[in-house]
Specification:
The structure holds 2 protein chains of 2 kinds.
Chain A: H1 3-27, H2 38-48, E1 56-59, H3 62-67, H4 70-77, E2 82-83, H5 92-101, E3 107-111, H6 114-117, H7 126-140, H8 143-158, H9 175-180, H10 212-216, H11 218-234, H12 241-257, E4 261-266, H13 271-280, H14 283-294, E5 297-300, H15 320-337
Parallel strand pairs in A: 1-2, 1-3, 3-4, 4-5
Helix pairs in contact in A: 2-7, 4-15, 5-7, 5-12, 12-14
Chain B: H1 6-20, H2 26-42, H3 49-68, H4 72-109, H5 127-142, H6 152-160, H7 173-176, H8 188-222, H9 229-260, H10 278-282, H11 287-298, H12 308-326, H13 330-352, H14 359-381, H15 385-395, H16 408-428, H17 433-438, H18 442-459
Helix pairs in contact in B: 1-2, 2-6, 3-4, 3-5, 3-6, 4-5, 8-9, 8-18, 9-14, 9-15, 9-16, 11-12, 12-13, 13-14, 14-15
Chain lengths: ~350, ~475
C-alpha cells in the first residue's frame, strides 16, 4: 500500500477540483458573502450587554434590516446602532429578551411590519419561533460554536463556494441546496415554493443593503414578488392584534419605566403588499392603537413628505441608495424632534 | 467540540503539532493530551468537566483499593461505590425526568393526585459512554482481570481521551491504558491511513448522513399526517442510513484521529447491514457496546450457562436495558425489546431449521434481517408511539390513502443510496477497508479520497451534532 503516493494524488486533485469549483461559480456571478445566521446575530446581541444609555438597538423584521443603513445613522449621530432586526420574524420575542434579560436603557427602535408584528404570540408559529430560536441560541451557544463562527468568517468572506445559509436560499450552492433544486415532478401535488434567491449582502455587523440586481433587474425583482405572494397567500392564520399588542405593551411599559427610549417605526412598502397591508392590517386598526397603548414615540413613513413616495423594488424593502436616503432623512427628523437626544453630535 | 467543525480542525492541528514536536517528553505529551481532552469537552460546557473528574477520581481510587483489598465484603463495597456514583450520574442526568414522569403517571393511575415540575437538567454530552468505560475498569479490577493503571495520568487519559470521549468506541482498560505506558508515535503509513479514516468518517457524517439522508428522515418522522407506504419506507430507510453513517462516521473519525497519534482503537462497526441474523448483527453494530453488555450484563445475569429459560430472560433483560441506554423513553425500550425478541426467535429457529448459507440464501437472509431491523428503527426514531404506530401500519401498506409528502427525487435518492449501502456492506462483509485498500491502486484510492474531500468541502454542513451524542 503506497499511501504517500495516494496522499499526494488526493491532495493535488482536491485542490484542483476546489479551485475549479470556485472559479466556475465566480464565472456564474457568485461572490463571497456572509450568511445572516444565528451566529452573526448572537455576536450583535452580545453587544447589548455592555451598551450604554447613548447606544441604539434596532429591532424588527427585514424592513428595518434593509431600510436602516448603519453607516448613514452613524454619520448623522456619531453612534453606530446594534442591528438586531431579523428577516421573517416577529420582533416581540427579541424585544422581550432585551427588556427582561438586560439592563439596557438606551434607544430601542422597533420596526413594525404589520404582517409579522401582529401575527402571533404562539411559540410554535414561524415568525415567533424564528426569533425565539435566535434568542435561545444566543443564551445557549457554546464556546466551540463561537470559535466555529470566528473561523468561518474568513472563509465566508473569501470563497464564493462557501455558501450554506440558514435561510436556505434557492441560489445557495452548497451540495444540499444544489440537490434540493432538482425536481423530477410534483409527486405531492402541493404548490411548490417559487425560486427565492438572496437579495441583499450582509456585512459583519449586520449592515444589510439590498443587492443592486434587485433594484435594477425587474425580472429578478418579480421573482421576489412571486415569493412574497406565495408566502402571504399561503398564510391562512388571522392576525392576533390584541394578543400581540398586549404582549408588546407590557414590555414597552417596563422598558420606558426604567428610562429607556422606545421608538416605533413603520418602514415603506409598495404595490400589492402595501395594498394588502392597508386593507387587512390598516393603520387605524393596528398601528395607532399600538402607538397609543405603548406610549412610544412613533414614525410612520407616510407622514413625512420626504419619505412617503419611496418605492420598494420588490414591494417590501428599499434599494440600497433609497435606504441610505431613508436613514439619513429619518434620523434628521428624529433629531429635530429631540427623540435622539443622546446622539453624540447633539 | 464536534469533529465536523472548523474549531476541531484547528484544535487537531495544534494537538498534532505539540504531540510531534520535541518540546515534551512522553509524560508531558500525555499531560498535553489530557489537557487537550478537557478543552475538547469543556468548549461545550465547562462546568460538566467536574463530572468527568469525579468519575475519574472515584474509579481510580476504587481500582487501587480493589488491587490490594482481599476482604470480599470490602471489595464488594468498593465496587458498589463505583456503581452508585457512575450509575447515579447516569440516573440523575439522563433518566431523572423520565423517572419523574413515570412516577407521576403511576401515582395518577392509582388515583393519587400528584404533579411534579419537570427538572431543568442538562444531559452531559457522552455521559453514557464514559461512565460505561470507567465502570468496565472497576468491574475488571473487581474480577481481577486486569492490573491497575500504573499512574493517575494514564487512568485519567483513559477516561478522557478526546477521540472517543463522547461517542465511543467504549474501550476496555486492557486495550487502551497499556498503550499509554510507552511512547507512541504513528508511522508515516499509520498517520496517512488515520487521515484517510478521518476523511471517510467526515464524508459519512457530513455528506451521506446530514446532506443526503437527514432531511428525508426528518420530514417523514416529523409529519403529522398518516403517510403512504412508499413515503414511510423511504423515511425509515433514510433513517437507517442516516444513523449508520452518523455513528459509524463518528467511530471512523475517532479511530482515524487516534491512529494519527499512534494509538489503536478497536473497530466499532463491521458492515452491519450485511448481517445474516441478529446475533450476527450485534457482532457488527456498535460492537463496543454490545460486547460491554454481553460481558457486564448478559453473562453476569447467567448467560447461556443456566438453561434455556434463564438465557432467554438474560437476553431480553440485556436488550431492554440496552434500549434504555440509548435514551430515556419507552420507544427505546420497545426498540430493545424488539431486538431481544428477534434474538430469542432466531435462537429458537436455529435449533429447528438448518439453512445452508450460500451467496443466494445469504443475501436473502441479510435482506430479511435488514428489513426487520428497519421496523426497529421506527421506534428508535419516532418521538411518540402514535408516530411509530402510523409508520408501522404505513410500512405494512395498511394505509392505502396515506399522504404523499416526499418528492420523486427524494425517494430515488434514498433508494439508490441505500441500495449502494447494502451492496457495499455485502461485498465488504468478510473483509476490511484496510484489506481492500491494500489491493487498490494508489491512483484509484487517491481519486476516491479526493472525491470524498471535495464533497465534504462543497457540502459544508451546518455543524450538525452527531446523533449518538445525546445517548
Amino acid at each position: 500500500m503506497n499511501l504517500k503516493q495516494t496522499l499526494i494524488i488526493a491532495l493535488t486533485l482536491s485542490v484542483m477540483s476546489l479551485v475549479a469549483w470556485e472559479l466556475y461559480w465566480r464565472s456564474q456571478g457568485k461572490i463571497p458573502d456572509l450568511d445572516d445566521d444565528k451566529n452573526l446575530w448572537a455576536v450583535q446581541r452580545a453587544k447589548v450587554k455592555h451598551a450604554s444609555q447613548n447606544d441604539v438597538v434596532l429591532l424588527g423584521s427585514s424592513r428595518v434590516l434593509f431600510d436602516i443603513q448603519l453607516n448613514e445613522w452613524e454619520k448623522e449621530t456619531g453612534i453606530r446602532p446594534i442591528q438586531l432586526a431579523s428577516a421573517g420574524t416577529s420582533p416581540l420575542p427579541m424585544f422581550h429578551d432585551i427588556v427582561n434579560n438586560t439592563d439596557f436603557k438606551g434607544t430601542l427602535l422597533v420596526g413594525v411590519t404589520p404582517g409579522l408584528f401582529f401575527s402571533t404570540t404562539y411559540p410554535e408559529a414561524g415568525p415567533w419561533k424564528r426569533a425565539q430560536n435566535r434568542v435561545d441560541y444566543f443564551e445557549n451557544r457554546t464556546y466551540a460554536q463561537r470559535l466555529n463562527h470566528w473561523f468561518s468568517l474568513p472563509l465566508q468572506k473569501n470563497f464564493a463556494f462557501v455558501s450554506t445559509s440558514e435561510e436556505g436560499w434557492s441560489d445557495d450552492i452548497d451540495l444540499k441546496s444544489l440537490l434540493n433544486n432538482i425536481s423530477i415532478n410534483n409527486r405531492t401535488g402541493k404548490p411548490q415554493y417559487p425560486p427565492f434567491e438572496a437579495f441583499a449582502y450582509i456585512e459583519e455587523d449586520r449592515n444589510n443593503p439590498m443587492s443592486e440586481k434587485t433594484a435594477t433587474d425587474t425580472a429578478f425583482a418579480n421573482s421576489i414578488k412571486a415569493a412574497w405572494k406565495f408566502v402571504i397567500l399561503g398564510n391562512t392564520n388571522p392576525p392576533d392584534r390584541e394578543g400581540t399588542t398586549n404582549f408588546f405593551v407590557s414590555d414597552a411599559k417596563k422598558f420606558i419605566a426604567r428610562g429607556g427610549n422606545l421608538i416605533l417605526l413603520r418602514c415603506p412598502s409598495s404595490g400589492w403588499i402595501k395594498g394588502g397591508e392597508d386593507k387587512f392590517l390598516s393603520r387605524t386598526e393596528f398601528w395607532e392603537p399600538l402607538v397609543k397603548a405603548s406610549n412610544a414615540k412613533a414614525y410612520y413613513y407616510e407622514d413625512y413628505e420626504q419619505l412617503k413616495d419611496l418605492t420598494c423594488p420588490e414591494w417590501s424593502h428599499l434599494s440600497a441608495p433609497d435606504a441610505r436616503y431613508f436613514t439619513t432623512e429619518l434620523v434628521k427628523i428624529m433629531k429635530a424632534d429631540g427623540v435622539l437626544s443622546n446622539s453624540k453630535t447633539n | 467540540m464536534l469533529f465536523n467543525s472548523l474549531s476541531f480542525i484547528v484544535f487537531l492541528v495544534i494537538v498534532l503539532a505539540l504531540y510531534y514536536s520535541k518540546l515534551f517528553n512522553w509524560t508531558n505529551k500525555k499531560r498535553m493530551l489530557l489537557f487537550a481532552s478537557y478543552v475538547f469537552y469543556g468548549l461545550w460546557n465547562p462546568p460538566l468537566i467536574l463530572l468527568l473528574w469525579i468519575s475519574t477520581i472515584v474509579d481510580w481510587t476504587t481500582g487501587n483499593k480493589l488491587a490490594v483489598e482481599e476482604n470480599q465484603k470490602k471489595r464488594k463495597l468498593w465496587l458498589l461505590l463505583s456503581m452508585v456514583v457512575n450509575l447515579g450520574f447516569l440516573g440523575f442526568f439522563k433518566y431523572g425526568n423520565f423517572l419523574l414522569e413515570n412516577f407521576t403517571a403511576l401515582m395518577n393511575s392509582i388515583g393519587v393526585e400528584y404533579h411534579a415540575q419537570p427538572m431543568d437538567i442538562i444531559l452531559p454530552m457522552g455521559i453514557s459512554f464514559y461512565t460505561f468505560q470507567t465502570m468496565s475498569y472497576t468491574i475488571d479490577m473487581y474480577n481481577k482481570k486486569i492490573q491497575p493503571a500504573k499512574t493517575f495520568l494514564d487512568f485519567a487519559l483513559y477516561v478522557t481521551f478526546f477521540p472517543q470521549l463522547v461517542a465511543g468506541p467504549i474501550v476496555r482498560a486492557g486495550d487502551l491504558i497499556t498503550q499509554f505506558y510507552e511512547e507512541k508515535k504513528a508511522t508515516v503509513n499509520q498517520f496517512i491511513w488515520g487521515t484517510f479514516l478521518l476523511t471517510i468518517g467526515l464524508f459519512q457524517k457530513v455528506v451521506l448522513a446530514d446532506t443526503l439522508l437527514s432531511d428525508t428522515s426528518d420530514d417523514v418522522f416529523g409529519a403529522k399526517e398518516v403517510l403512504s407506504g412508499l413515503d414511510a419506507w423511504t423515511g425509515t430507510l433514510a433513517f437507517s442510513g442516516q444513523i449508520f453513517f452518523d455513528f459509524a462516521g463518528y467511530s471512523t473519525c475517532a479511530i482515524g484521529i487516534a491512529l494519527m497519534l499512534g494509538i489503536i482503537l478497536p473497530d466499532n462497526f463491521r458492515y452491519p447491514y450485511a448481517a445474516i441474523g441478529f446475533s450476527d448483527l450485534w457482532k457488527r453494530w456498535h460492537i463496543s457496546l454490545s460486547s460491554w453488555l454481553r460481558d457486564y450484563l448478559y453473562i453476569p445475569l447467567g448467560g447461556n450457562k443456566h438453561g434455556l429459560v434463564r438465557m432467554y430472560v438474560a437476553l431480553m433483560l440485556t436488550m431492554l436495558l440496552g434500549g434504555l441506554w440509548h435514551g430515556a423513553a419507552w420507544t427505546f425500550v420497545i426498540w430493545g425489546a424488539l431486538h431481544g425478541i428477534y434474538l430469542v426467535v432466531e435462537r429458537l429457529l436455529k435449533n429447528k431449521i438448518h439453512i445452508k448459507i450460500n451467496a443466494f440464501s445469504g443475501i436473502l437472509l441479510a435482506l430479511l434481517t435488514y428489513t426487520l431491523v428497519n421496523f426497529t428503527w421506527v421506534f428508535f426514531r419516532a418521538r411518540e408511539f402514535s408516530t411509530a404506530k402510523n409508520m408501522i401500519t404505513s410500512m405494512l401498506f395498511m394505509n392505502g390513502d396515506g399522504e404523499k409528502i416526499l418528492q420523486s427525487f427524494d425517494i430515488i435518492k434514498v433508494f439508490v443510496l441505500i441500495t449502494i449501502l447494502f451492496i457495499c456492506h455485502w461485498i465488504m462483509r468478510n473483509t476490511s477497508m484496510e484489506e481492500v485498500s491494500k489491493k487498490t491502486s494508489p491512483w484509484v484510492l487517491g481519486v476516491v479520497w479526493a472525491v470524498m474531500f471535495f464533497l465534504i468541502a462543497i457540502a459544508q454542513g451546518s455543524g450538525e451534532q452527531f446523533i449518538y451524542f445525546q445517548f
